[in-house]
What does this fold into?
Amino acid sequence: MTIDYQNELGLPLFQFETLRQQAAVAHAVSTRLAPRKPLLPQVQPDQPDDYRLAGRSAFNRRETIYGRRTELLTAMGLTPAEVQPNLVGVYQKHTATVLAVGPEAYGAELNWDKPLPDADGLLTDQPGIPLMTIHADCPPILLYDPQKRVVGAIHSGWRGTVGRIGQAAVRLMTEQYGSQPENILAGIGPSIGPCCYQVGEPVLSEVGQAFPAKAAELLPLQPDGSYHFDLWLAIQLTLLDAGLSLRHIENSGLCTRCHQDKFFSYRATPDDKRENYGQFVATIALR
It folds into this structure.
């Protein structure tokens, strides 16, 4: 569970070991680091650690971000000319809503100017349709059912986690595609960890209501009297409740705030720069 440069562009990517072993799937979580061997020199950042694939100011330079996503897809072993028009994103609003994507996504460019509305998760059984979610501390969850050949990408912030978005995704996989939960592989990606995620109300109350038997474990009391929220464990609990096997759930264990040299982190961004914070992406596609 490390950041790997072993692709044709030398683009630093985080990948899950369990998903790396699946030849039918391409996946990656991007970092803030630029490629060592750029495909498109004109889209490289002024600073090598400001390689944004999303972000408020980044979207003022559409051609730059489009080019960087071309590099990301290339580093994942995909052909951008074939799959980039099929790239699907969602207008993330910290919901527990998951959408199924079908062949209507081919060539529809449901990403840049017209992401699917008001959802935080995507599923598809269509090859060549990359699913993408955007992150700056909230956990990404990537899902794959090798039996039914279904993939999923989830943005699971604290509201989505308390709303059990991971469980909602698994439920939709079973209803829409006939997946059996025990066959599904899941990865919980880099995000703010329990080491750094200090919370207050309303998080404390809502976590307590959603996980009454596990609230003390999920909200450990700190020496200074504050509480931290273990998003990773909460997501794991929802996936286990959905029927996944513990051995099929891989946690990156990478805190974005602790590793702000490699990942963009909203909480690590100074207050006076938060209007211009960077974001990274999580992407998965069937080959």
User: Anything to note?
Assistant: The chain is about 20% helix and 20% strand.
